[in-house]
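Practice problem: predict the structure.
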Amino acid sequence: MITTTEEMKQAMIARIENNFTYHAPKNDQLARYQLIRDTAKTFALLLIDNTPASREQSLALTQIEDAVMWGNASIARNE
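Answer:
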């Protein structure tokens, strides 16, 4: 448990070091990255087929891209 300001600072520095470091894929990570991308692509195509071209559609697609990025980052940074 972090209790002091210095411990909080050191924990944040460790997090920054991890977040800004290349994490080579290992074990089944490549397959899981691809599964996330493929599933997101299916959803994005569903949105294109079922919603009118609009700012809202564009934002929805951007959010899907964000979800893929953060999902894959979760795997890379935390395993």
